[in-house]
């Protein structure tokens, strides 16, 4: 007997959804940051065992949109809820239930929800979460996504809930439905979140224009697009200091992920108000291609 399920991670920005998925997969598949709106696009993480397969959707944090990019992010969340067999509704232990009223009203429409209370290592759990789980008839589990505490218990609950299937959705060796180019773009963007301040990381996007894999090296050429002319100089830095740092730290991460030497060339260009440009946002959807 085989069991499989599509599992969607739902929650506010920066609640730990991507960290939890990385912990489950034991791979740094999803980029993480302490800054809000790190996840822009949904990512599938595929976790397969002898008799179980879970296809996890790491969805963007739920926000009220202010531009076309954020509207797209909100649509991804709403569609993810519809498509999922099981919802992991993730909150921080110390947050108040009352501040989640809108998101709760959306999530409660789904027939199978697990309430995951994260960050129990640094926060005391608000009693409102246990009351909510009782009222809704949801499973509730407290855990720490960062150090993996009680993550195995979450997987046990998922195994109990997963429906029976005749065959798995993906080959057992697959890790994600995203292309290698997408992984490269996300790692570069994650590094930008770490090294740049203010609004810069949230107003840039990365385009991989060329990626050639040879026997002992992967050669990558990428463009960093910023939304305003004033941002270009900040991204490059004095005498190219910051763009060199971005390239070096991104390359180190990519070499670790791909287990191969990386040559990374970065250039910076301006694309004004790209986050309201439909052709650019549509292009984000092209980075699918299941790989191991």
UniProtKB/TrEMBL annotation:
Cellular component GO terms, alphabetical: cytoplasm; plasma membrane
Region (G4): 118-121
All copies of domain Era-type G, residue ranges: 3-164
Region feature (G5): 143-145
Region (G3): 58-61
Positions that bind GTP: 11-18, 118-121
Biological process annotations from GO: ribosomal small subunit assembly
InterPro entries the record matches: G_ERA_dom (IPR030388), GTP-bd (IPR006073), GTPase_Era-like (IPR005662), KH_dom-like_a/b (IPR015946), KH_dom_type_2 (IPR004044), KH_sf_prok-type (IPR009019), P-loop_NTPase (IPR027417), Small_GTP-bd (IPR005225)
CDD domains (alphabetical): Era, KH-II_Era
Bilayer topology: Peripheral membrane protein
Domain KH type-2 residues, every copy: 196-272
Alphabetized UniProt keyword annotations: Cell membrane, Cytoplasm, GTP-binding, Membrane, Nucleotide-binding, Ribosome biogenesis, RNA-binding, rRNA-binding
Location within or outside the cell: Cytoplasm; Cell membrane
SUPFAM superfamilies per record: P-loop containing nucleoside triphosphate hydrolases, Prokaryotic type KH domain (KH-domain type II)
Lineage top rank: taxon: Bacteria
Stored Pfam families: KH_2, MMR_HSR1
Chain spans, region G1: 11-18
Any one GO molecular function term: GTP binding
Gene3D superfamilies named in the record: 3.30.300.20, P-loop containing nucleotide triphosphate hydrolases (3.40.50.300)
Region (G2): 37-41
Job description of the protein: An essential GTPase that binds both GDP and GTP, with rapid nucleotide exchange. Plays a role in 16S rRNA processing and 30S ribosomal subunit biogenesis and possibly also in cell cycle regulation and energy metabolism.
Protein family (similarity comment): Belongs to the TRAFAC class TrmE-Era-EngA-EngB-Septin-like GTPase superfamily. Era GTPase family.
Subunit architecture: Monomer.
Protein name: GTPase Era
This protein's encoding gene: era
């Amino acid at each position: 007997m085989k069991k499989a399920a599509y599992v969607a991670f739902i929650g506010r920005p920066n609640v730990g959804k991507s960290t939890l998925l990385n912990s489950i997969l034991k791979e740094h598949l999803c980029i993480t940051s302490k800054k809000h709106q790190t996840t822009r696009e949904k990512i599938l993480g595929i976790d397969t065992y002898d008799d179980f397969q879970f296809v996890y959707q790491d969805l963007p944090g739920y926000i009220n949109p202010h531009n076309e990019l954020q509207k797209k992010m909100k649509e991804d969340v709403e569609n993810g809820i519809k498509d999922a067999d099981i919802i992991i509704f993730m909150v921080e232990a110390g947050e108040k239930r009352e501040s989640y009223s809108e998101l709760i009203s959306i999530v409660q429409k789904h027939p199978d929800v697990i309430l995951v209370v994260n960050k129990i290592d640094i926060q005391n759990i608000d009693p409102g979460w246990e009351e909510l789980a009782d009222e809704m008839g949801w499973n509730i589990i407290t855990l720490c996504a960062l150090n993996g505490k009680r993550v195995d218990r979450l997987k046990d609950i998922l195994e109990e809930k997963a429906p029976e299937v005749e065959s798995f959705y993906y080959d057992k060796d697959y890790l994600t439905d995203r292309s290698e180019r997408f992984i490269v773009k996300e790692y570069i963007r994650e590094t930008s979140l770490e090294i740049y301040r203010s609004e810069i990381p949230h107003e840039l996007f990365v385009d991989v224009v060329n990626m050639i894999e040879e026997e002992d090296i992967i050669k990558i050429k990428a463009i960093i697009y910023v939304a305003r002319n004033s941002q270009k100089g900040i991204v490059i830095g004095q005498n190219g200091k910051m763009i060199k740092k971005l390239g070096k730290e991104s390359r180190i991460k990519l070499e670790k992920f791909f287990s191969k030497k990386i040559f990374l060339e970065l250039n910076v260009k301006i694309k004004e108000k790209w986050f309201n440009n439909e052709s650019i946002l549509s292009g984000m959807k092209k980075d699918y291609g299941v790989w191991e």
